[in-house]
Amino acid sequence: MQGKQLFFIKFLTALCISTLLILYAQNTQYNYINLFRKYLNNKNIEITSKRHAHKCIHSKVLVEEEKIRKIQEASSHEDDINYKYTEQSSFQNIRIKFDYSNLEKHHFSIQRYIELNLIPAAGNYFEELLRVRRLNEPIRLSSRYNNYPCGYAKVNIPKDHINNGVQNADFVFYITASDDESNTLAYASTCDVQGTASTKRPLAGYFNMNLKYFKQAINSGDKMAVANWIYTTLHEMTHSLIFSDYHFSNFPNNIKKRDRYGRVVLADPQLLEYARKYFNCPTLEGVPLEDEGGNGTAGGHWERRLLGNEMMTGSDMYDSVFSNFTLLVFQASTWYQINWNKAQPLIWGYGEGCNFLGTNCDIQSQEFCNSVNKNCSYDYAGLASCAQDSLSNNCKYWKSYSNTHCNYPDQGQAKQWQSVGGKSGSNTRCFKTDLYNQWKWNGTPPAQACYESKCIFNGNQAIIKFIVYGNEYQCNQNNQVVRIGNKGSVTCPDITRFCLHMSACPDSCLGRGTCFNGKCVCHKGFSGPTCETRE
Hints:
One of its GO terms (cellular component) is cytoplasm. This protein is of the alpha+beta class and 535 residues long.
């Protein structure tokens, strides 16, 4: 464990944004904090609960759309081929236009909520994150769409977008929705345009959402359920913009290969160098793609077992993050330049070594477990049990439940925490404690509770302050045992992991910002302590 900590210290001391590589340097436990001042990264887990979880079907959509294209191509016009785009020489922030005409058949209030709250949270993030060579011409959609809808979602393209095009845009997103009993929350893909950009960068796409589950999230009163829809939107739109076999084939260099285990991996040189240092595995051949989940998920996402709550793993979770892994794929295309200040911190698997990256569960890893007892979730956002999911290769991890999430638990759970001086709400996190032992229990007493807490940063160092029975206490070291009078004790968590997760910020910034030094840095268009205010 000492060797792992030394690597952890050395790796995170210096960052050169210009080369996008992390260099070894100092000897301080909390240099990980410094890394993400300019080059952020994070980790979280899938929620099992009454909330319907999102499982991406992008790979299935691609198969179906290939069939659709073959049928429609017979009606292509020569004008489509002759239309040319020219691109400016310099990179500027991408201009994304959203079309909501396919939502008009749905209730006005839902349509307005999507237009004002959901889509801007995702769109504004991309406009801050990505730079492209802007187009000089309007984006004109394929003339096939005069007779056919676009893609698997059967999106109706406005005639004006075919004849005259969409002005002052570098990408057009068509927002559409269903309201049905399928198990799919949302999916996204591309739409064809007249001509191509010289770089083959995608220029149009759609995002389709199932309003049945979206309305359930809004009506639940659970802010994190709504935030999770923002994560889902970001995930699916990323498929339209970059993370898709359909786009990988147009990269200037082939970044897909198979490693010695036979796994499909992405192996762009800068991505590979970053991954080797991140995982502490110099023999890594590439970053593996998902091998489970069937034809809807496998091959089109990062491997869940290895990258946890990275935004582009194959199913949803609280506090998903856009880490450097996905951003380096954007960069590998040469279509995009990245605003690295908008990257988000990933912790899952950091420094775990080559054994962690093999084909079996590394039970020695802090990410995995083998226990019948409860524990705090790996991001300390709530209580969890040791369980696997459909994408974790039979590996068990601390999998949390929405009804025991510190921010929004059910009433009975909140009262249990109150009995040991705990609390639920925006600024609460999970700690281990033996304070339950002061009461009589039938069977084994609980060993975790949520307490109001905050991370205090001082340069490279961080401490945790937390409140029990109205009194403030402090964590200065990992696993420090803090006495709570004569009632018992609270055990301090891993301070670095605790303070770098999105859940270190109140309400995890509601999916509308990045947690930095315990405070929300809101995406464009949002403000407030939790990014709750739309500007």
